[in-house]
Design a protein that fits this description.
By secondary structure, the protein is mainly alpha-helical. It has 11 helices and 4 strands. Helix 4 packs across helix 8 and helix 7 crosses helix 8. The protein starts with 16 loop residues before the first helix and ends in a 6-residue tail after the last helix. The N terminus is likely disordered.
């Protein structure tokens, strides 16, 4: 246990939604419109999908691993592939984090969300994430489906041929965002992966403990990640309260096919946010322009998360 006898800090700062919308950014000598245009044009919403597909290229054919080995590389093919699979698993959380920040950026600073996103600190981000998890998207956005429709399908109005597609897609996206947020917040391995001890164990050396008997139940046949977490505890020693942490080792399974499906959906939603900004810059009133929206007809949140390995 790591002891901490420091006095507890005061209450954490509360972030007011209305005050967030009132934040002003002075672009200095930069042109606000030009800078905004640069960011929306260059926003790499396909980055995580391309990265996942690049990793999958080596995973699906181990003979390709020779291209990435160095001269004295002694890692087995299986071990390298496990590392690459873990990278895909973590792409889910990285891309999800970007998607949540994009939603909040469009909520608080609609005309130039990238300024708000770039300046958002982790404490502020997780404050709104916890509020979102507790109350749903309705807890931070009034009429969230209408809000999403205006930003994800701004040119698909009532008489548009794809109006029904957009309506179904928005209902799915709203439900998907709420479910993805819960998934994101419940996975401690992302923080351990970014800032803690990265451990990618060889499956042959890992056993799955049976909680009932505390005996090894045998080796895993599915993907697994081992990482460290801590649980805050409070004890009384010599009449004084001592604060600390109980350290635990966790084993979690993951499913690459499930991860890639999440990345595909996240990428599509990010694309629509970017296309929404495209409308702002390229579709003056009355001008007919084609936008590359992604629709989600035939998708259901229940079907996507049915294969969630954390359940």
């Amino acid at each position: 246990m790591v002891e901490n006898n420091k006095k507890q800090k005061g209450p954490k700062k509360q972030f007011d939604i209305d005050s967030e919308r009132g934040i002003m950014f002075d672009p200095g000598t930069l042109s606000l419109a030009n800078t905004e245009r640069e960011y929306y044009i260059g926003y790499p919403y396909q980055y995580w999908y391309h990265k996942a597909r690049a990793l999958w290229y080596f995973i699906e054919d181990a003979s390709r691993l020779q291209c990435i080995r160095n001269e004295k590389d002694i890692d087995t093919d299986d071990y390298i592939i496990e590392n690459l699979k873990m990278e895909i698993h973590m792409i889910v959380f990285h891309s999800a984090e970007s998607l949540f920040l994009t939603v909040l950026g469009h909520l608080f600073y609609r005309h130039s969300p990238w300024f708000w996103i770039s300046s958002c600190k982790q404490r502020k981000f997780y404050y709104f994430m916890n509020l979102w998890k507790e109350k749903g998207l309705e807890g931070i956005i009034n009429e969230p489906e209408e809000w999403l429709r205006e930003r994800l399908y701004p040119t698909v109005i009532d008489r548009h041929r794809d109006h029904q597609k957009a309506k179904v897609s928005v209902a799915f996206i709203k439900k998907f965002l709420d479910r993805l947020l819960t998934y994101f917040m419940d996975h401690e391995e992302y923080n351990a992966y970014k800032h803690g001890l990265r451990v990618f164990p060889d499956k042959a050396r890992i056993t799955d403990p049976d909680e009932a008997t505390r005996k090894a139940a045998g080796g895993f046949k599915s993907d697994i990640f081992k990482f460290l977490t801590d649980e805050p505890i409070k004890e009384t020693r010599n009449g004084q309260e001592v604060y600390g942490y109980r350290i635990d080792r966790n084993l979690k399974r993951y499913n690459i096919e499930f991860d890639i499906q999440l990345i595909v959906v996240i990428t599509g939603i990010l694309q629509n946010f970017v296309e929404g900004k495209n409308v702002q810059f390229n579709a003056p009133m009355g001008q007919k322009t084609k936008f590359h929206y992604v629709y989600f007809e035939g998708f259901t949140v229940e079907e996507i998360f049915r294969s969630d390995p954390s359940k």
